[in-house]
Write a structure and sequence with these properties.
0% of the residues lie in helices and 55% in strands. The chain has 119 residues and is an all-beta fold.
Length: 119
């Protein structure tokens, strides 16, 4: 059974920091591309940051220079360090694991963790 469990969300003042973690099980973590997405009320889910199985990273323009995604293959965990948080970063943050084979694409999601940034 595949599980992605996010933690580390909470309430923080603007300018503050949070570190999200996503612990995974049931997948071969090292060969999966990992990502963090977020969804604010009334908006579509959007990609925040991604890290491939070989460590390449990609960020949404809105978080570049403030957020850092990293992975620890030994712990099967992906992290999102969020600094200089803004009220517009308020959303539910979701962890995502993806793997493409010749025949199929496998995608898994966590249950989400709430991040609220107060002005």
């Amino acid at each position: 059974q595949v599980q992605l469990v996010e933690s580390g969300g909470g309430l923080v003042q603007a300018g503050g920091s949070l570190r999200l973690s996503c612990a995974t099980s049931g997948i071969i973590f090292s060969i999966n591309d990992m990502g963090w997405y977020r969804q604010a009320p009334g908006k579509q889910r959007e990609l925040v940051a991604a890290i491939t199985s070989d460590g390449s990273t990609n960020y949404a323009d809105s978080v570049k220079g403030r957020f850092t995604i990293s992975r620890d293959n030994a712990k099967s965990t992906v992290y999102l360090q969020m600094n200089s948080l803004k009220p517009e970063d308020t959303a539910v943050y979701y962890c995502n694991a993806a793997r493409q084979t010749l025949a199929e694409r496998y995608v898994y999601w966590g249950q989400g963790t709430q991040v609220t940034v107060s002005p």
